[in-house]
């Protein structure tokens, strides 16, 4: 998978009253990578949340000057936000395919106007050690959100390495520090990556071939930890792809490529930063007593806060076009099904049909409790974004009546998003 994933769907943080179908928000933005494949023609599109609708931000689309690739890379995070405290808010978009100036792909950097959502292009940056050519599985991105640690990580799939950058919080420019080989047990490059905010500070990686790994984050280097196949891969042929990490840094959650049924796995983070064996939940065998009727589960996202001392774990079912909510205990790592739904809410929720083909990445809309609601990327021609409300205390969901919202700047290729303000861990 190669692609300059340059669809920025403008970040939005949202205070929501979903029971009445309304969303109350101040300066909520969603950013998307349009993944346009013309050489140097990729763009990022920004949306502002207005009521229960997304409207284009003036100036969209924003050229990344790189090249995108419209293929389905469900677990790859292509858009990432970095905060500089009282300094700049920065947005990064991966451009995996070649341009004359960047034959091995690059990362486009923007500053974000947090009042209007407008983006200002800062520059494009590559891995100076990379001589591999374009990135056939994209360039996955992850931000270290510790205060005083503005680090950006980028998985260059063409060279099979993860590049470590330091972020200048005044300008949003990034500076290469090191590149570390990162390939799965069958030699495939990293797909999903995520960074823990709580210690031990690690970068967790899925390879899409059944194998997973972690790297301890140093001051400018990544320290390799053991690689191994997940439990679900051995028992149900699930292949971990999407990655998220609990706020306390104790567990890594993987969403599996599992056509037979939704399946997630949870690995403990051991002292020193290595991963322990995963515990499997769901799948055709209903592992751990978890039942997920939705098909496939490549993208996962944890709620920013707790509901009855548990996180909601949101999953996109890529083959059945649904969203599923589970519960995760952040102390034990145990995953369970949610409470029964009431009223018009369902679990799973089938997304409103349209010209799109697959749901991909999803993020929460506000940074408290359940997250208020979800934004879900929908890959297709054209691609779109769904807005989905969350019911408390059940975790059940429903799509708002005005959804989905078409991205007019993408012929296909929306896979990931970030929101502003984004989840703080």
Please provide a written account of the structure.
The protein has 425 residues and is mostly beta strands. It has one domain (9-420): 7 Propeller (Methylamine Dehydrogenase, Chain H). It has one helix at residues 231-236, and strands at residues 9-11, 15-17, 22-24, 29-33, 43-50, 53-56, 62-63, 79-83, 89-95, 106-112, 119-125, 139-144, 151-156, 161-167, 174-181, 193-195, 202-206, 211-217, 222-229, 239-245, 251-257, 263-268, 279-282, 299-302, 311-317, 322-328, 335-337, 349-350, 356-364, 373-380, 384-390, 397-399, 405-406, 417-420. A hairpin with a 6-residue loop joins strand 10 (106-112) and strand 11 (119-125). The longest helix is centred in the middle third of the chain and has 6 residues, at 231-236.
């Amino acid at each position: 998978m190669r692609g300059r994933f340059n669809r920025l769907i403008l970040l939005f943080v949202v205070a929501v009253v979903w029971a009445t179908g309304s969303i109350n928000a101040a300066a909520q933005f969603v950013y998307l990578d349009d993944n346009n494949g013309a050489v140097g023609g990729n763009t990022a599109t920004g949306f502002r949340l207005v009521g229960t609708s997304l409207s284009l931000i003036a100036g969209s689309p924003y050229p990344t000057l790189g090249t995108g690739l419209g293929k389905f890379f469900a677990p790859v995070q292509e858009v990432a936000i970095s905060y500089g405290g009282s300094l700049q808010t920065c947005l990064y978009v991966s451009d995996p395919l070649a341009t004359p100036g960047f034959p091995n792909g690059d990362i486009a950097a923007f500053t974000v106007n947090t009042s209007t959502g407008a983006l200002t292009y800062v520059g494009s940056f590559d891995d100076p050690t990379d001589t591999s050519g374009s990135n056939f599985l994209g360039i996955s991105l992850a931000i270290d959100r510790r205060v005083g640690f503005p680090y950006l990580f980028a998985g260059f799939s063409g060279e099979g390495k993860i590049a470590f950058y330091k972020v200048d919080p005044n300008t949003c420019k990034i500076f290469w520090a090191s590149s570390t080989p990162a390939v799965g047990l069958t030699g495939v490059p990293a797909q999903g990556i995520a960074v823990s905010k709580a210690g031990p500070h690690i970068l967790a990686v899925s390879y899409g071939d059944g194998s997973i790994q972690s790297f301890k984050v140093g001051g400018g280097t990544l320290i390799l930890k053991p690689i191994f196949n997940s439990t679900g891969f051995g028992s149900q042929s699930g292949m971990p792809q999407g990655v998220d990490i609990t706020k306390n840094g104790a567990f890594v959650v993987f969403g599996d490529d599992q056509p037979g049924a939704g399946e997630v796995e949870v690995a403990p983070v051991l002292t020193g930063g290595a991963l322990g064996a995963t515990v499997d939940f769901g799948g055709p065998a209903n592992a751990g007593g978890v039942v997920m009727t939705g098909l496939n589960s490549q993208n996962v996202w944890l709620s920013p806060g707790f509901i009855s001392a548990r996180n909601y774990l949101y999953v996109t079912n890529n083959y059945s076009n649904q969203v599923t909510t589970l519960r995760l205990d952040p102390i034990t790592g145990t995953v369970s099904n949610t409470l029964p739904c009431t009223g018009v809410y369902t679990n799973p929720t089938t997304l409103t049909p349209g010209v799109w083909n697959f749901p991909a990445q999803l993020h929460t809309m506000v940074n408290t409790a359940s997250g208020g609601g979800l934004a879900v990327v929908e890959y297709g021609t054209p691609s779109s974004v769904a807005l989905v409300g969350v019911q408390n205390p059940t975790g059940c969901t429903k799509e708002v009546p005005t959804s989905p919202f078409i991205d007019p700047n993408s012929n296909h290729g929306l896979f990931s998003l970030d929101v502003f303000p984004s989840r703080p861990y």
